[in-house]
Amino acid sequence: MDADLIINILYATLRTGTPLLLIALGELVCEKSGVLNLGQEGMVLMGAVTGFMAAVVSGSLFTGVLVAVLCGIGMALLFGFLAITLVSNQVATGLALTIFGGGLSAFLGSSYVGIGIEGFTPWELPLLSEVPVLGKIFFSHDPLVYVSWILFIAVYWCFRSSRAGLIIRAVGENPEAANALGMRVFLVRYAAVAFGGAMAGLAGAYLSLAYTPLWTEGMSAGRGWIALALVVFASWRPERVLLGAYLFGAASILHLVLQGLGFEASPNLLAMLPYVATILVLMLIANDAIKARLNTPFALGKPFRPQL
Amino acid sequence: MTRIELNRITKRYPGCVANRDVSLSVDGGEIHALLGENGAGKSTLMKIIYGVVKPDAGDLFWEGEHVEIRGAGHARGLGIGMVFQHFSLFETLTVAENIALSLPASEVGSMDTLKARITEVSVRYGMRLDPDRTVHSLSIGEQQRVEIVRCLLQNVKLLILDEPTSVLTPQEVETLFATLHQLAAEGCSILFISHKLDEVIALCDRATILRAGQVTGECVPEQVSVEELARMMVGDETPLSENYSKKDGGEILLECRKLNYRPEDPFASALQAISLQLKAGEILGIAGVAGNGQEELMRLISGEETSAADTVVLNGRSIGKDGPAKRRAQGLCVVPEERLGRGAVADMSLENNALLTAYQSGLVSGNGWLNLGQIRKFTQRILSRFNVKAEGSLAQAKSLSGGNLQKFILGREILQQPRVLICSHPTWGVDIGAAILIRHALIELRDQGAAVLMVSEDIDELFMICDRLCGICDGRLSPVRKTGDLSINELGQWMAGQFDVESELSDSITDSNSIEEQAL
Known about the structure:
Chain A is mainly α.
């Protein structure tokens, strides 16, 4: 393999990993606050279709992104109202949200199938993009990739050394105690759920406006589910989510490259590669039971009812 | 000056009145006891002061001014700190992070200055704490220190402690009392909730006694006798005097033979060559400070952990490899130390919890159908016989207070009429009336010919009801001796590990020889 191919593979890895990174970071924050939202897939699809529609109608990609994010937040708040305020079962509600989002997005987008738009083009960052090799791999992406890095740093820093992160962790571990200390459990959980929705909407916009600038039904292709698994296998640590997302990206690209090179294996087996590789690697780094326990939000999925 | 005053506070819950016309006042620098049995309404009253529960009627005055406390945050703002019975700590966070969360953001400053403050305060009040440890790795006593230090950092003027000593070893209690005295001397008021009379007498300046939600007396504990205090607390019906006859046991029902144990969990204790014999018709007590191997021993006997077959012998059969169900089928019943989690399932009804261990006593028909009528009857028998306060047999286990749940679990095991009952801390966290009830039940079980093995830290209680006693320290068992021939001092030495293991072995050998001779 020549150097250009490798550079291209790494470049594509980052692109492919970005939607996963966004969804998983959002879900991580949401789960850290103790809420398990299985509606990622539905929120991503809704983000993708509304973002695409808004971009087509307004002619502005940024309007599209904004609408997708707002739509994700709206879906998340709907989930929040059911699961937090009405204390419905989080698993069932999340699944319903996914099915709802899948159906509604197909309905809304039916007349937009087949329309092509000019998606996000790479922004070559001044100076940085001229660095040999690294410049091409890291600094010639579309703006949403840079946004995902900024958000990663924000989430990482939030849980590492901010009071907000501490409060989210506290609420996710022991909501009763958090309430007794005067923290506003509902508010924190709503905010975390909304953040998760915003991220899923953003990931949707990335898919339909940057990665493949078009709308097709079910275009998220299960990324919401992979992101969910990613968060668990990354034991709720942002840096491992980043690693897992890009690992998945690399493996996805690799299986295309292998097919292109005429590698002799069933394409179905090769298509499994990204899933297997990501989960295997994350399992191997997360085998310390005590540390895993320390990172797991203890009250995950458990509804909180304040005492009267 | 009066720090806080409650005037005719009333709080009703569906089906019961938790507090009725309760009035009480605490002065600055005073240690005030709130004394009462489980369910007397102490905790509700404290939650009202802390703003977590709203009263239906009545007034609250803070430093002379009428206030309505809107929530925990408001209470803390006024200078009220509370240490709950069940700690409100976050186990996966460090000590410093836990404390940072309870302080207003503006007060936390940088993490390093906060750590320095924590260390300073904990040293000043004699409660050593490492701010960088995660809470789950702390002992219960240390976790309580985190709670107290957390209050102290907020410059509390009134510190409320809800049954703080129920989870502490005697040494930890002493440290705590020293800290509380120091705090009071500096002008902080302390409201000390307890049902332990000796502690109230030792610590408190004044006491208010609650019974069934109402104030039944106020006194200076030093000036009244223990009996008077107890009488105000439990009412006139409950007998207070306790004298239990001692008995010699009959044949050996349960035996441990050189039982060794290497735990996988590095924090558990190992056991070394434990040998003991439990006879029919006796209560054998094992005294020890928590964490010396008694919990592991109980698990090995109950079957939660298995061992080589002939190291545990029940009724002449080697059962070391059998699981708990097989052992229960042979008449071994168990009351574990943890009530919720191991003794009962928090979210299940009392009926289902009764079924969990008592299914072998006629609650399930031969072909596997549940006998719902029998289950209900059995549960209701537990409730009435052991005076368990619960909203019927369908109440969730977690809705019961600690003492009532303990009565329920003990009742469930005793009503199965076991041949052998092993129980950990049978009266732990239970009020006087309930403790007497439980002790009578144990004695009655013994008199019916069952063998009872009991682990406890409460030396007075062990001497009161056990026929033979031994101590456990560092996974080794001391010699076993008749209660009448043993002094409290000697038992204390055994608990501290001052005994000769060799003599224990020879003792048990001669003991078993003599039994065999008798049998012949």
